[in-house]
């Protein structure tokens, strides 16, 4: 009952990046403190070892949804927003600041969810989450995960350099209870415009000038709690703030009927489907889906 949204990175050599750093995965961040929203407030950031069996899925929510955005962000988070050497216009700097300020909060039946933009020091653990999810969705042996992690990290470095035209969101979940740890629950990538569009998007190809949601994954142990639904809603909310286009696109595999139903309940409609000959490339057939975002949207309850 899960959908795999294709990781839109190339498996070929990346000749335009001189990248040689090896990926190292650490299942625990107890050795240091990392805050979710404010560097002045330290919150123990614990990544459970159970989170390393996730899949590229969008689970169905069983709780009432409501979002909340915060406009307070310390200026220190923008000290080194980009390290790419490219020139940023004033408009891009303003959008970059808006990305850093973006917050989405949701009380779930079993706990609480916070969503914000990924920080540089969180890239490795996000890479591992995506790599294992991609390997599982493609039924690849676990031995390929480290190799995939290397490729995913190259991809994410490139995508991070495209901010503020694209962004990676992270969802942090804390189960009800005083002793519960904060966990990385999931991630999703959002492209806002043509400059942020991927060079090699999955088929059917979405319009490059329209916002696009992709590479969503939720921790395997945290599915069916509404986390995927709210990652989707947070993405849509951020798109409404960052893009002048109201049309949003995403892909859903044909075999993933439950997520397909969820997308339909969220207002997405199928606009195109992969030709059957895509099976010759050992890929699953996918639907390209589109939603027109309203000016003001109230998240609704979704049940499986």
TrEMBL record:
Span list, region Disordered: 62-81
Pfam families: Acetyltransf_1
Domain called N-acetyltransferase: residue spans: 161-268
Chain intervals with Low complexity compositional bias: 62-76
InterPro entries documented for this protein: Acyl_CoA_acyltransferase, GNAT_dom
The organism's place on the tree of life at top rank: Eukaryota
Protein name per UniProt: N-acetyltransferase domain-containing protein
Species, as recorded: Datura stramonium (Jimsonweed)
């Amino acid at each position: 009952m899960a959908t795999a949204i294709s990781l839109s990175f190339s498996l070929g050599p990346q000749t335009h990046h001189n990248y040689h750093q090896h990926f190292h995965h650490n299942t625990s961040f107890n050795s240091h403190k990392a805050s979710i929203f404010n560097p002045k407030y330290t919150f123990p950031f614990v990544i459970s070892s159970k989170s390393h069996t996730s899949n590229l899925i969008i689970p169905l929510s069983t709780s009432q949804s409501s979002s909340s955005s915060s406009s307070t962000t310390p200026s220190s988070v923008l000290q080194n927003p980009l390290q790419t050497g490219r020139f940023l216009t004033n408009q891009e700097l303003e959008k970059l600041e808006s990305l850093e300020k973006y917050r989405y909060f949701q009380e779930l039946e079993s706990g609480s969810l916070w969503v914000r933009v990924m920080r540089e020091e969180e890239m490795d653990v996000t890479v591992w989450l995506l790599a294992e999810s991609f390997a599982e969705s493609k039924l690849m042996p676990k031995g390929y995960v480290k190799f995939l992690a290397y490729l995913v990290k190259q991809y994410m470095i490139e995508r991070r350099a495209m901010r503020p035209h694209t962004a990676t969101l992270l969802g942090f979940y804390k189960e009800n209870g005083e002793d519960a740890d904060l966990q990385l629950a999931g991630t999703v990538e959002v492209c806002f415009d043509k400059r942020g569009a991927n060079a090699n998007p999955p088929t059917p190809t979405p319009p490059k000038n329209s916002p696009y949601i992709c590479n969503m994954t939720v921790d395997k142990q945290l599915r069916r709690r509404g986390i995927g639904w709210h990652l989707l809603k947070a993405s849509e909310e951020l798109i409404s703030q960052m893009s002048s286009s109201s049309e949003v696109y995403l892909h859903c595999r044909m075999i993933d009927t439950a997520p397909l139903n969820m997308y339909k309940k969220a207002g997405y409609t199928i606009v195109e489907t992969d030709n059957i000959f895509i099976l010759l490339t050992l890929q699953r057939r996918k639907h390209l889906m589109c939603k027109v975002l309203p000016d003001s949207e109230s998240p609704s309850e979704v049940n499986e």
